[in-house]
């Protein structure tokens, strides 16, 4: 869905800004390699967070069973109750996120350390996603490299455009995870010689796998 959004009119502005931010931090053009060992472009980190928030991947999280009675207002929720956290609702909570239904990576810039859960895509609490750090690194690298290598443009036919609405884009609304309806976008290569060099380098590094 992040790629889908980047193909939209607002996505063109976001890509332009992202590309400028990458170039500012890496004027020598080594972002492709450096992103594997460091995370120095805050706008890309913010873009990843906003993608995770806006299209909450597991909208109702995983079922969890309580192990003790929980007093709640005038009631007691007995041990053994199954809970689902409505992460979609939390990610769109207007008391927590300003204009939650707008896609806006800027909301994640200049947030001081220790500000708490940035979004609920990974759940929350002691059983939140055990792979969130790995997933964040992968997404940062993927978006930085995609934006470095390509301009993501709309498909040739309007009928192939993605549905961007976080509920309507889901192929199976009752499934555990958000499964985007099929769509097309275009990838316009920024610099073919560079891209071919990067691909050759990757082929070389992974040939033993
Ligand atoms: C963008 C990618 C990912 C998303 C959005 C995601 C999301 C989630 C969510 C929402 C939960 C449930 C949290 C809760 O109930 O509060 C979860 C659990 C979990 N995830 Fe992920 N996940 C991602 C990637 C990964 C990766 C890469 C790994 C492993 C390398 C991983 C391993 C796990 C495990 C082991 C749990 C269960 C944790 C537990 O029950 O204590 N996830 N994930």
Q: Your description of this structure?
A:
This protein is α+β, with helices and mostly antiparallel strands and 209 residues long. The chain has a single domain, classed as Orthogonal Bundle (Cytochrome p450), CATH 1.10.630.10. The protein has helices spanning 2-6, 9-25, 31-34, 42-54, 87-91, 132-149, 192-205; strands spanning 64-65, 70-72, 75-77, 82-83, 150-154, 185-189. Strands 1-4 form a two-stranded antiparallel ribbon. Strands 2-3 form a two-stranded antiparallel sheet. Strand 2 (70-72) and strand 3 form a beta hairpin. Helix 4 crosses helix 6 (132-149). It is globular and about 65 Å long. The mean pLDDT is 96. The structure holds protoporphyrin IX containing FE. Protoporphyrin IX containing FE is lined by residues 57-58, 61-62, 64, 85, 121-124, 127-131, 134-135. Belongs to the cytochrome P450 family. It holds the Pfam family p450. This is Phenylacetate 2-hydroxylase. InterPro entries: Cyt_P450 (IPR001128), Cyt_P450_E_grp-I (IPR002401), Cyt_P450_sf (IPR036396), Cytochrome_P450_fung (IPR050364). Keywords: Iron, Metal-binding, Oxidoreductase.
């Amino acid at each position: 869905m992040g790629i889908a959004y980047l193909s939209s009119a607002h996505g063109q502005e976001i890509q332009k800004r992202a590309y400028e931010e990458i170039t500012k931090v890496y004027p020598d053009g080594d972002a492709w390699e450096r992103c594997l060992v460091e995370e120095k472009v805050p706008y890309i980190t913010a873009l990843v967070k906003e993608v995770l928030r806006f299209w909450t991947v597991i909208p109702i999280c995983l079922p969890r069973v309580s192990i003790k009675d929980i007093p709640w207002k005038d009631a007691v929720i007995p041990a053994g109750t199954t809970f689902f956290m409505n992460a979609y609702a939390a990610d769109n909570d207007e008391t927590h996120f300003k204009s939650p239904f707008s896609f806006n990576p800027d909301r994640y810039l200049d947030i001081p350390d220790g500000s708490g859960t940035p979004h609920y895509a990974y759940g929350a609490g002691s059983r939140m996603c055990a792979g969130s750090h790995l997933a964040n690194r992968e997404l940062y690298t993927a978006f930085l490299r995609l934006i470095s290598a390509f301009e993501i443009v709309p498909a040739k036919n309007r009928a192939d455009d993605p549905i961007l609405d976080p509920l309507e884009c889901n192929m199976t609304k009752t499934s555990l995870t958000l499964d985007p309806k099929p769509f097309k976008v275009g990838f316009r290569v920024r610099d073919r010689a560079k891209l071919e060099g990067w691909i050759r380098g990757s082929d070389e590094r992974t040939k033993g796998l």
